[in-house]
Recover the amino acids of this structure.
């Protein structure tokens, strides 16, 4: 008989309408071509879609070969399929994105927890381990530069292990650079930096042939296909225009609320996250309870447009 996996991951994002949602960490500025993209998706919906040409064009635009996936989530499951049959020891820092542990448990791997910094993680790397590392980290937004990651990368290389580097929020980090290495898989997504989480499109850098051999056919659908067309045509101009606006508001929120992050979201100590989330919900503001990250005294909130951030600052300043 089939038995459920006894682990549940939690995610941000409103389940109900009418709330000002700071729980999902998204670019608040949508691309100006969204409506045209939707019309294009409608026109594509009556056919099976093959995106090899778009994948090649995207690779040329980015400057390295990529494997398109239905967001980072599909990529994580592909890591499980490819790697966890052979590598049964999975190293996961605390506190971080919960899907890493769920994937490990689904595939029956041994989960090892470590403090969340490259040196501490490096100390636990064993022969043929799988290491998950979120950079910038979710939920605290901490970003480690290439120099800081070198001890971990070297240990992974020496032990013939695999480093799965989740860079979902790297577009929001100033002057961010990503490390290189033969034992690194890098996971990226567009949906956060374009503010469109319902369109499931991301990509993997590294081990291209392996990932393409196991991914699902047609997984991104007509909306994902149309989205890729417009992203490629836009050549990331939308990000060049809007990410600096996010940085400007980020600096203001840091000053007003005495918080710090390298990404587009923050955590804040409130004592009791669950009751705080409910009090703010009554005021029409939704933030993330960080209990699922193992941080029950903290909330997480993202950066939105200035007038919306004014409301957030007003309700959070007294806390």
């Amino acid at each position: 008989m089939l038995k459920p996996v006894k682990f549940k991951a939690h995610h941000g994002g409103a389940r109900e309408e009418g709330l000002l949602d700071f729980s999902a960490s998204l670019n608040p500025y949508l691309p100006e071509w969204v409506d045209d993209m939707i019309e294009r998706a409608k026109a594509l919906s009556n056919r099976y879609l093959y995106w090899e040409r778009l994948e090649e064009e995207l690779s040329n635009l980015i400057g390295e070969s990529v494997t398109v996936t239905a967001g980072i989530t599909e990529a994580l499951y592909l890591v499980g399929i490819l790697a966890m049959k052979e590598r049964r020891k999975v190293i996961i820092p605390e506190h971080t994105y919960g899907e890493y542990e769920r994937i490990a448990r689904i595939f029956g791997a041994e989960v090892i927890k470590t403090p969340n910094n490259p040196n501490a993680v490096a100390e636990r790397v064993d022969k043929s381990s799988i290491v998950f590392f979120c950079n910038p980290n979710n939920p605290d937004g901490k970003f480690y530069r290439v120099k800081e990651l070198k001890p971990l990368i070297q240990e992974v290389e020496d032990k013939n292990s695999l480093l799965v580097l989740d860079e979902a929020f790297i577009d929001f980090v100033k002057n961010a650079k990503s490390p290189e290495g033969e034992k690194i898989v890098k996971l990226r997504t567009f949906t956060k930096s374009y503010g469109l989480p319902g369109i499931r499109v991301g990509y993997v850098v590294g081990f291209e042939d392996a990932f393409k051999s196991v991914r699902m056919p047609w997984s991104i659908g007509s909306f994902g296909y149309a989205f890729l067309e417009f992203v490629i045509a836009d050549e990331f101009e939308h990000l060049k225009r809007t990410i600096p606006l996010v940085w400007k508001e980020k600096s203001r929120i840091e000053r007003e609320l005495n918080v710090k992050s390298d990404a587009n979201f923050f955590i804040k100590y409130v004592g009791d996250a669950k009751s705080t989330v409910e009090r703010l919900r009554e005021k029409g503001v939704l933030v993330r309870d960080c209990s699922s990250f193992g941080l029950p005294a903290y909330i997480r909130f993202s950066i939105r447009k200035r007038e919306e951030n004014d409301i957030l600052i007003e309700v959070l300043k007294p806390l």
Remarks:
- The longest strand covers residues 89-94.
- The CA atoms of residues 1 and 170 lie 42 Å apart.
